[in-house]
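re: the backbone from monday

yeah here it is again, tokenized this time
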């Protein structure tokens, strides 16, 4: 049994008061707070190492290399990848998807399928290369609740489809796509799938061998890890075939200048994709975040959050004047609820109220279009008005949700919804 109340003590931010008020942090879908164990690992790098990994051979460099390799191994094991060579360090989900868009060999006329529920990071990298490589981008629409029907993918896929880019769990509806069915469909058509796991990875057990996904993009900052570090998972045979993305030091076996020509020979993956000296502190911190998640267990985290998601949804759904984005059946969502309130101009006004005007608490949520403008437009919501979003993680409590509900009811009263 996990003692969830003890977990809160690991998060120094939660012990803070701002303007004498307690923090209620409901913005983990944007960024998760960091446990002490993660900041200790980062501090160890900066205070005890501070050296480059890989290039030099002295004791500090060797330890740095060992720790970053260990962190890569932890990620590989955590998602059950076949080899550490399938894990590429990047800055974040956005960079991971850009890497795939730019490095995969596309033939002229090939198609990429994506959806109207994507975070902008899941679609813009492909939109950018589309014209350059003369590709076609097809959009599958989610329902207004953010749910997909496999039939729509079956209708969209053709012999020319090379790749499906799909958000696994949406950061606005909280819905999870039927990824394994989409992967099977794609593979039956010799197409590949990249899964945006920014919102799935922090909350649920991932098994890339079981799902058979070809690529997965993750930001560690949403999973208790440091900022500026994430990873791309890719099947090794695909990574080997792909072009490098960013190039430079550490990506090559050799470079020669011969008869006025530059002749580089690139390393095998993952190194051919990791150009320049790396974010060693971030990678070591990412390893500590994986240790932390494993020490609790992803199944326990998912179970705990499923209960909290129910409490959150039930707390908000009956507030007069509220319009909840995403599924009405709470079983179809995980870890977040985005909403709009009648009689208030923008979601920012809701977020400001919760942050500034609640007695005793600073309630921190996200407001805006959450980098999902197309889905907001499809619901008839202007991105400038946006939606408010409360999102939970393993450190949140039922008590915090109750305080959010009371505060929103008070706001509702002030703006005349009751
Ligand atoms: C579903 C989803 N995809 C992609 C991203 C982009 O992540 P990052 O900004 O860390 O690259 C986010 C971030 O909010 C997200 O929620």
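seq for it, each position gets an aa:
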């Amino acid at each position: 049994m996990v003692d969830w109340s003890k977990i809160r003590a690991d998060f120094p931010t939660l012990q803070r008061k701002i303007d004498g008020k307690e923090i209620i942090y409901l913005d983990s879908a944007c960024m998760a707070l960091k446990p002490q164990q993660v900041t200790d690992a980062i501090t160890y790098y900066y205070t005890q190492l501070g050296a480059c990994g890989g290039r030099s051979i002295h004791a500090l460099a060797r330890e740095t290399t060992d720790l970053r390799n260990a962190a890569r191994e932890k990620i590989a094991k955590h998602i059950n990848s076949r080899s550490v060579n399938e894990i590429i360090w990047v800055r974040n989900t956005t960079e991971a998807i850009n890497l795939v868009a730019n490095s995969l060999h596309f033939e002229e006329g090939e198609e990429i399928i994506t959806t109207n529920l994507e975070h902008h990071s899941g679609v813009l990298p492909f939109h950018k290369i589309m014209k350059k490589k003369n590709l076609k981008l097809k959009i599958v629409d989610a329902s207004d609740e953010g749910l997909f029907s496999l039939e729509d993918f079956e209708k969209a896929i053709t012999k020319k489809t090379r790749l499906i880019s799909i958000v696994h769990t949406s950061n606005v509806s909280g819905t999870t796509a039927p990824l394994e069915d989409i992967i099977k469909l794609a593979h039956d058509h010799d197409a590949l799938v990249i899964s945006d796991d920014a919102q799935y990875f922090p909350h649920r057990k991932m098994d890339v061998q079981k799902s058979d996904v070809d690529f997965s993009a993750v930001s560690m900052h949403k999973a208790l890890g440091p900022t500026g570090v994430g990873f791309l998972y890719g099947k090794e045979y695909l990574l080997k075939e792909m072009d490098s993305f960013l190039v430079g030091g550490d990506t090559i076996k050799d470079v020669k200048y011969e008869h006025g020509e530059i002749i580089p020979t690139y390393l095998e993956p993952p190194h051919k994709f990791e150009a320049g000296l790396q974010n060693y502190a971030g990678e070591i911190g990412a390893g500590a975040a994986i240790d932390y998640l494993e020490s609790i267990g992803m199944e326990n985290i998912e179970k705990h959050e499923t209960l909290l998601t129910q409490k959150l949804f039930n707390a908000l759904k009956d507030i007069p004047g509220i319009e909840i984005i995403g599924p009405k059946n709470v079983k179809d969502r995980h870890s977040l609820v985005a909403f709009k309130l009648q009689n208030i101009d923008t979601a920012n006004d809701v977020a400001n109220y919760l942050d500034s005007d609640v007695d005793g608490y600073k309630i921190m949520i996200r407001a805006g279009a959450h980098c999902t403008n197309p889905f907001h437009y499809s619901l008839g919501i202007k991105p400038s008005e946006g939606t408010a979003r409360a999102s939970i993680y393993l450190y949140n409590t039922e008590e915090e949700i109750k305080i959010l509900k009371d505060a929103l009811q008070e706001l509702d009263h002030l703006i005349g919804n009751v």
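The radius of gyration is 22 Å. The chain has a mean pLDDT of 97.
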